[in-house]
TrEMBL record:
It is found in: Cytoplasm. One of its GO terms (molecular function) is dCMP kinase activity. Its main location: cytoplasm. Signal peptide: none annotated. Pfam families: Cytidylate_kin. GO terms for biological process: pyrimidine nucleotide metabolic process. Belongs to the cytidylate kinase family. Type 1 subfamily. This is Cytidylate kinase.
């Protein structure tokens, strides 16, 4: 039987991580939030006292990355980690260093669910199901603002919106593996969707892909 690999791409706070996690649970597949890898690299660079624009330092951090326990590190969900991730992800050496790790995860028997910004275009171009999850910058900024303020972080909404727009520009404009919708990915706009409605729409997209692939 063909492995069920589900690629979920999209910009920050679009809902792709929540959707990917729900899909993984629904289909009983392992899930990798690839954004955590880049967040961890960014924090490692900062903790070493190096500049995020230092490509050599960023690549070294990526090559020595230990992924054990990443999802349990609360620092990776903070605003600074997201900004750091977007900056180090612009270095081709960082993306190259993390490429095999992500592809090995996608190549597990039975399949896997991965979410990020270049899963359907670079990491798993042959994935059976591809989704590109998005929403307006204003809605995404509101989601992230509510998430961070609920954790006690002090940030103005307008600053959050500027962060979102800056990251979108950086992620889509980089030379190496830019954030773009794969030609065969299905667009899922979550602007006006709650979590349950977004997941149901995503599940139906995956089911249609399974039928096409005979999985």
């Amino acid at each position: 039987m063909t492995a069920l690999v589900i690629a979920v791409d999209g910009p920050a706070a679009s809902g792709k991580g929540t959707i990917a996690a729900r899909l993984a649970a629904h289909y009983g597949l392992p899930h990798l939030d690839t954004g955590l890898l880049y967040r961890a690299v960014g924090l490692a660079v900062l903790d070493a006292g190096r500049d995020l624009d230092d490509a050599v330092a960023a690549e070294a951090a990526a090559l020595s990355l230990d992924i054990v326990g990443l999802s349990d590190n609360p620092r990776l969900t903070e605003r600074d980690a997201g900004e750091a991730a977007s900056r180090v992800a612009s270095h081709p050496g960082v993306r190259a260093a993390l490429l095999k790790l992500q592809q090995d995860f996608a190549g597990q028997p039975g399949g896997a669910v991965l979410d990020g910004r270049d899963i359907g275009t670079v990491i798993a171009p042959d994935a059976a199901a591809k989704l590109y999850v998005t929403a307006t910058p204003e809605v995404r900024a509101e989601r992230r603002w509510k998430q961070l303020t609920a954790r006690g972080q002090d940030i103005a909404f307008n600053d959050m919106l500027e962060d979102i727009r800056r990251r979108d520009e950086r992620d889509s404009g980089r030379d190496s593996a830019p954030m773009v919708q794969a030609d065969d990915a299905v667009l899922l706009d979550t602007t006006d969707l709650g979590i349950e409605a977004a997941f149901d729409a995503a599940r139906r997209i995956v089911e249609a892909a399974r039928v096409r692939a005979g999985i």
